[in-house]
């Protein structure tokens, strides 16, 4: 059997994979088993934000692997504390809980929101409002939070206490809120939902309503976080102060890590025994993530915006491009015949993703201008 057949035979068949086997990567380049070189506009779905195997990240990771790859969370480790300190100082949030993935970071936020409300108001105030077309993960709670029926098939019954409102429709959110509501959870750009940004005005209104009613505002920055949109976290462009922020993907730059960050109000909700994770905040992932955060300085973030402008100006108005949405280096190009276009890109040596009816671009934040141009030339050819 070849690898495609073996994969299908031995691995649960949950992914429609692209027909390519990558064996090596460096920066914004990937190489397949035949030695063919590809430009990477996907970053492993917004994970490899600094490029593949970034040298300082790899150095820190290797050093930590050789020193202490794992110890239980019942002891202290420096990389985890260093990472928490970096996150808190850069966000002005107060405390962090570490897990291994986006879904887990959101699970933690959901649990914390319910406990915050329970501690303060007692039983019954447990509802969480999320948006239609959102994506929050694949575990039972985060799947329930995900406002898309396509993901809900087969898995009933779901958790109690989730309600869905319309994105960019303040009245819809207001209507969904009741005296049972403990939190509103949002992606500022719906990623899997088709790279759809929320309006600043909508988000601000929701934030102030939440504040007034002591409903927690949870932001799922699993995909939008860690420099992806041109600020360290996307909320920093929205002029709001969330109560809980979750992140994962780009924080790890290739290793699994999730973080749930709490503001002062929510920082002491989780207490001994109320939550935990065996691997969460693993020293190796944490040592790597510290390098990621240190590299996401204002110079790099300004470059993200410049590269974003470049992509938008090169692609907008092209025949076949119906619209371009997104922020920073999280962009969606609406066009027809997606599957064929993705395959054509791959054929020509460019890796791109899709989201709903769009080609989704998530290149490394530090992609060089030459590589970006070369990738855009392939994309333009294919779009025509
Ligand atoms: C990817 C993603 C998740 C899930 O993250 P996993 O690491 O796959 O569990 C959750 N929320 C958003 C917004 C995401 O993009």
Summarize the structure.
By secondary structure, the chain is an alpha/beta fold. It has 14 helices and 17 strands.
| Ligand species | pyridoxal-5'-phosphate
**Residue windows where pLDDT falls under 50 for at least 5 positions:** none
Question: How many helices in DSSP terms?
Answer: 14
- The oligomerization state is single chain
Shape from CA axes? globular
* Strand order, largest beta sheet: 4-12-11-10-7-5-6
Helix % is 25-40%
- Sheet bearing the most strands, described? 7 strands, mixed
Query: Structural class, from secondary structure content?
Result: alpha/beta
**Rg, Å, rounded:** 21 Å
Average pLDDT reading: 97
Determine the strand fraction and express it as a percent band.
15-25%
Cα separation of the termini: 37 Å
Number of strands: 17
Describe what this molecule looks like in 3D.
With 384 residues, the chain is α/β, with parallel strands linked by helices. 39% of the residues lie in helices and 18% in strands. A hairpin with a 2-residue loop joins strand 1 (22-26) and strand 2 (29-32). The longest helix is centred in the N-terminal third of the chain and has 20 residues, at 102-121. The chain starts with a helix and ends with a helix. The mean pLDDT is 97. Pyridoxal-5'-phosphate (PLP) binds at residues 101-103, 106, 135-137, 187, 191-192, 220, 222-223, 248-249.
Which secondary structure elements does this structure contain, and how are they paired or packed?
Elements: H1 3-10, E1 22-26, E2 29-32, E3 37-40, H2 43-46, H3 55-67, H4 78-91, E4 95-99, H5 102-121, E5 127-131, H6 140-145, H7 149-152, E6 162-165, H8 170-176, E7 181-186, E8 189-190, E9 196-197, H9 200-213, E10 216-220, E11 244-247, H10 249-252, E12 258-262, H11 283-295, H12 298-315, E13 323-327, E14 330-334, H13 338-347, E15 350-351, E16 353-355, E17 358-361, H14 369-383
Parallel strand pairs: 3-15, 5-6, 5-7, 7-10, 10-11
Antiparallel strand pairs: 1-2, 2-3, 4-12, 8-9, 11-12, 13-14, 14-17, 16-17
Helix pairs in contact: 3-11, 4-11, 12-14
């Amino acid at each position: 059997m070849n690898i495609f057949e073996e994969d299908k035979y031995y691995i649960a068949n949950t992914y429609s994979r692209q027909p390519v086997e990558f064996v090596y990567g460096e920066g914004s380049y990937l190489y397949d088993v035949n030695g063919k070189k590809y430009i990477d506009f996907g970053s492993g779905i917004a994970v490899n934000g600094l490029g593949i195997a970034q040298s300082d990240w790899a150095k820190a990771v290797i050093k930590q692997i050789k020193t202490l790859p794992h110890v239980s969370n019942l002891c202290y480790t420096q990389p985890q504390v260093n990472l928490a300190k970096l996150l808190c100082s850069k966000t002005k949030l107060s405390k962090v809980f570490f897990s291994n993935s986006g879904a887990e970071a959101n699970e933690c936020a959901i649990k914390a929101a319910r406990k915050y409300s329970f501690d303060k108001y007692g039983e019954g105030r447990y509802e969480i409002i999320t948006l239609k077309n959102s994506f929050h993960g694949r575990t039972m709670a985060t799947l329930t939070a995900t406002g898309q029926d396509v993901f809900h098939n087969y898995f009933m019954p779901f958790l109690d206490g989730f309600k869905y409102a319309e994105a960019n429709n303040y009245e819809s959110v207001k209507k969904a809120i009741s005296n049972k509501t403990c939190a509103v959870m949002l992606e500022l750009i719906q990623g899997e939902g088709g790279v759809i940004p929320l309006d600043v005005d909508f988000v601000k209104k929701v934030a102030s309503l939440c504040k007034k009613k002591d409903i927690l505002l949870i932001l799922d920055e699993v995909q939008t976080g860690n420099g992806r949109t041109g600020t360290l976290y996307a909320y920093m462009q929205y002029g709001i102060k969330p109560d809980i922020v979750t992140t994962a993907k780009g924080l790890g730059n290739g290793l699994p890590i999730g973080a749930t960050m709490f503001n002062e109000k929510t920082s002491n909700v989780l207490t001994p025994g109320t939550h935990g994770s065996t691997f969460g905040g693993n020293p190796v992932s944490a040592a790597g993530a510290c390098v990621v955060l240190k590299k996401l300085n204002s110079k790099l973030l300004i470059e993200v915006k410049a590269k974003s402008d470049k992509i938008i100006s090169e692609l907008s108005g092209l025949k076949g491009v119906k619209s371009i949405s997104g922020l920073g280096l999280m962009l969606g190009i609406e066009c027809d015949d997606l599957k064929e276009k993705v395959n054509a890109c791959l054929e020509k040596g460019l890796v791109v993703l899709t989201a709903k009816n769009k080609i989704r671009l998530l290149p490394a934040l530090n992609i060089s201008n030459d590589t970006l141009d070369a990738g855009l030339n392939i994309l333009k050819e294919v779009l025509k």
